[in-house]
Amino acid sequence: MPKALCLISLVASILILVLFLADAAMGLLGMQDIAPLRSASLLMDITFVVIGAIMVWLSWSTYREQR
């Protein structure tokens, strides 16, 4: 069960990372119309990208300890 929880948190954090990274990239490239969150706030995007990356690292390192 702990492995499954680690993998679920890994997938969720990768989704958060990709979503906010895509929103920031599209906002900076001038494609606000098709950005996932309409590029509401660059500061919010950067914050969630950093948090998502930290969550990916924590989930992955915890998963590796479970082996």
Can you give a write-up of this model?
The chain has 67 residues and is mainly α. The longest helix is centred in the N-terminal third of the chain and has 27 residues, at 2-28. The protein has one domain. The radius of gyration is 14 Å and the shape is elongated. It has helices at residues 2-28, 42-66. Keywords: Membrane, Transmembrane, Transmembrane helix. The chain crosses the membrane at residues 40-60.
How is this fold's topology laid out?
Elements: H1 2-28, H2 42-66
Helix pairs in contact: 1-2
Q: Calculate Rg over CA atoms.
A: 14 Å
How many helices in DSSP terms?
2
Shape, per Cα inertia axes = elongated
Tell me about the biggest sheet? Answer: none
- Span between N and C termini? 12 Å
Level of helix content? over 70%
Mean pLDDT across residues:
94
The number of distinct β-strands equals 0
Helix-strand string: HH
* Portion in strands: under 5%
Please tell me the total number of domains. Answer: 1
Describe what is shown at a glance.
This protein is mostly helical and 67 residues long. It contains two helices and no strands. The chain is elongated.
